[in-house]
Amino acid sequence: MNGEMETLADLSKHYRDSVPADLREANSFEWYLEEVYEDPKIARNAHQRVADMFDFYGTRYDEDAGVVEYLMASEDPLHDGENVFYGREVHESIHEFVNKVKSGARGLGPEKRIKLLLGPVGSGKSHFDWLSRRYFEDFTMRDEGRMYTFRWTNLCDIIRDQDPGDNVVKSPMNQDPIVLLPQEQRDIVIEGLNENLQAPYTIRNDQALDPASEFYMDRLLAHYDDDLESVLENHIEIIRLVASENKRQCVETFEPKDKKNQDETELTGDVNYSKLAVYGESDPRAFDYSGAFCNANRGIFSGEELLKLQREFLYDFLHASQEQTIKPKNNPRIDIDQVIVGRTNMPEYREKKGDEKMEAFNDRTKRIDFPYVLEYEQEAEIYRKMLRNADVPDIHVEPHTLEMSGLFGVLTRITEPDSDTITLVQKAKAYNGELDDGDDIDVRKLREEGEAKADIAEGMDGVSARFIGDEIAEAIMDSTHRGRKYLSPLSSFTHLEENLENHGSIPEENLGRYHRYLEMVREEYKERAIEDVRHALAYDIDEIRRQGEKYMDHVMAYIDDATVEDELTGRDQDPDEKFLRAVEEKLNIPEDRKEDFRQEVSNWVSRRAREGTSFDPQDNDRLRRALERKLWEDKKHNINFSALVSANELDDDERSTWVDALVEQGYSRDGAREVLEFAGAEVAKSELEA
């Protein structure tokens, strides 16, 4: 609104537009029948509605990762991207969860299982569960996700002992109005619905009315001489049902309170003591349907830290999942319809995994591993999201800062490779997609080896993004207090190193290994910083383009067994093998692989030509890097390396030129000066030793 004041009328209109038009309406059962025949999906069960919810907000197939991404998780359209999830492994887990819900929607079995999200602390499983509940609430507000329930009216007119305060009673379990029909008549309606249904599942409903509603139905049918039409016309109103966790309606979160004093009534409901004196102890009207399973009916039940519950307390979950019923104390069984999601961390899972007495519970769960991210650039996006969602001071995040922090996190999560031909850092780069065509690395095999070597699965152990994000935040505040307007990898490394021992979730036996990983990351950053400085000191786009064109001319002549015109004499000559190898050696391409590389680059140029795109060496990452490094070799003798070691020896104009070049690469001016002193000294040392 560009800062313009919103009036109360504006705000009121925004609210009214956001809620369903029929939210406050009461309709007849006849109206409901017409609506459900028109749109059979109204009568979906919980698994079917949740499955449709994931598809409603959109999907995208990531060809590079080979996984389906659900936009509610990959883009978060409801919250402007505030809750986006990153990482191939995480989206695979979300896809696996959705597949189990969709299988349950088809009645294939998972509808009778607990979907158990298993992962280390800070892996995002709780946040994904939270996000699913928020989207379910939104989905039920829309026409595509609408659902209805009913309320009993005018009960005191017929039932003489009915409390006047209970003249109108909403369905205690928020049941679908279709359950008001006896099963034989209901099946006739459902058969007609399925003939009109366009969905991969069929509508099914064999639930019994909840005990209180069953009581009212029996009394009213007796009064009307079993005239069902009169009962439904005179005593039933159909109302819109919208999920709301705050109202404990169709969405419920259950959190264990006292581990030693757990009460099953928290799940199944209890006697309504205020009604005992009115109705008596055995009357179903004296029951309070306030248990977590009751509140979650028609929607999502979310169990936090599920495996921290006592074994006896988990028995209620067996019936809730397998039988889709609950059994309150001194009451008949009650049918339920909900997607039961549980969450647990690794220690609790390991503790319960070997418990033979947990066999029945484990058999009724579908475990979905929710690992840490294993691509360090995707991990860096998590930190960027954290910064986007916070009130960050006016500070510049230097290149490589978040990526190198992410690389450290990934190194702690992946297993050491079996082969001596690849290092742990190279494995992390391979997972990140940094593979050249000439690299002899089988990523699929690496992943299979990692899964086999890991305790449960790769990515289920290590340092969390939460810990690293906290240290980045501390580094930002420390830089602010010191009057530094930039955050560099060096300051992030310092905070990570100093606080590893202070983090309670990191086992002491891992500290030595993690410090070693930090040194690996420092070394990787040093190479990248040196590359940036080389780029700044010797980069010449026109010269790179000219050298690239020369390289391609000689490559094409080599492949075609032809000659090339000499630039100086104009005479035809054989391809300059010395020049070609000078470029290729900058990528460590051995003599026996040179033809593969030349053919690869030639094919790339040919593809671009067919697409009508002109040749530009800047567009081929491997060729560009090779040409940049060759240009560096050609120009380095003109650079004052001793001046790089001591910043005071730099000429102001010369320093300014180099700083400008680094600023073009994304550095702040102060950050550029730091990297010049850090990487420049390393470059100078290596060149002076050469």
TrEMBL record:
Alphabetical list of SMART domains matching this protein: AAA_PrkA
One annotated GO molecular function: kinase activity
Protein name: PrkA family serine protein kinase
Domain PrkA AAA: 27-421
Keyword annotations of the record: Kinase, Transferase
Domain of life: Archaea
Lineage: Archaea, Methanobacteriati, Methanobacteriota, Stenosarchaea group, Halobacteria
UniProt organism field: Haloferax namakaokahaiae
